[in-house]
Design goal:
Layout (H helix, E strand, L loop, with lengths): L1 E8 L4 E2 L5 E3 L2 H19 L5 E9 L5 E10 L10
Antiparallel strand pairs: 1-2, 1-3, 1-4, 4-5
Length: 83
């Protein structure tokens, strides 16, 4: 098992993982990164119609081995009353 670190960015806040997680391999780390994105989005929404969420995976040596990004874009297609 190797330790992987997951640094996150929700558009407002960047968090560097100092603890990491032991996983069997890099593919398991990729899956964990991708799985984290919907949870990050749920925690921030609704908060505007445009936001980018990302997770960077680092290995034990500190090298970035994978990045996953989720772009949320909401657009109105009907006229809206002024707020």
């Amino acid at each position: 098992m190797s330790r992987y670190f997951f640094d996150t960015d929700d558009g407002d806040y960047r968090s560097q993982d100092d603890e990491g997680m032991e996983l069997p391999d890099a593919e398991a780390a990729r899956v964990a990164a991708v799985d984290a994105l919907p949870d990050m989005a749920r925690d921030k929404l609704p908060d505007g119609d445009r936001r980018t969420f990302s997770v960077q995976v680092r290995d034990e040596g500190g090298a970035v081995i994978y990045t996953a990004t989720l772009d949320l874009i909401g657009e109105w297609h009907i006229p809206r009353a002024a707020s």
